[in-house]
Amino acid sequence: MSDTKNTAAVATARGSMRARIEQLLAFGGLIVIVAFFSIANENFRTFSNFTAILFSTVVIGLLALGTTFVIITGGIDLSIGTGMTLCAVMSGVLIINWDLPLGLGLVLTVLFGGLIGFVNGFNVAVLKLPPFIATLAMMLVAQGLALVLSNSVPIYFNALPEFSRISTGELIPKVPNAVLVLAAAAVVAAVLLNRTLFGRYTFAIGSNEEATELSGVNVRRWKLLIYTVAGLFTGLAGIMISARLGSAQPATGMGYELQAIAAVVIGGTSLVGGKGSIIGTVIGALIISVINNGLRIMSIPQEWQNVILGAVILAAVYADMARKRSGSST
Prior knowledge:
By secondary structure, this protein is mainly alpha-helical. Helix content is 78%, strand content 1%.
């Protein structure tokens, strides 16, 4: 028995060390990319541009935080982009069209994101649909509902300037409030993942769902909760993007899911589940934002920006597969 415990302890220590190394590699990659663009174009290394990079990271970062939990379980969520758009539209419907108090409207918007996640979780955990199919269907449903609820026109928050200040205001001089929201959300996500039973079961389900269920854990209930929590981050992202734009745009959202998933994988979370970190996800989101920003500053055409970003995603997935093969051979 003691030998078994020692072996498990050694395996855990090795896994923890490997995770730290991967985080350091991701951070090193971020530094290299920043250095490259700083040398390539002097406009990149200005303080205002670094602030812009952090500002642009917020929406992708929030989506990536939520989907980190889902991917650690071995699942996927393709609905976060259009789900975010639907939540943005709901914020406009609740606060502008229905004239609800701002605070209540914000809370209900986040909870609506949780509802989207709950439906995804129900389809995956209870109906046993493959996560790819379940969330793909939700992606289309959310896209359609956003257009229906808004009558296919933007909902503007011009009469409510305090709403925009949620994102663009500055509690700390020269630091947009949106950056503080992302930082707070990252802390909450890290605590959930690393310091709670919720996080332990998230890792357990991703590592070996069958064994976790045989040990007496209600996997169905925990999966439902995991997808719901991920949806809360989607709802928060919907608030932040509508506050940043000053309007709820029903035709946006497509493509955000790929960047968020790429950020999670670049940060070291395994697509096959069982491994991941919030710090890595934040670093991955920063890498995506730095690449997007640097390519724009260098006046790279949009079509080539997409090619380069696609290549980065492929490289991240290949690195994840290489890590998996390396881990299974040791």
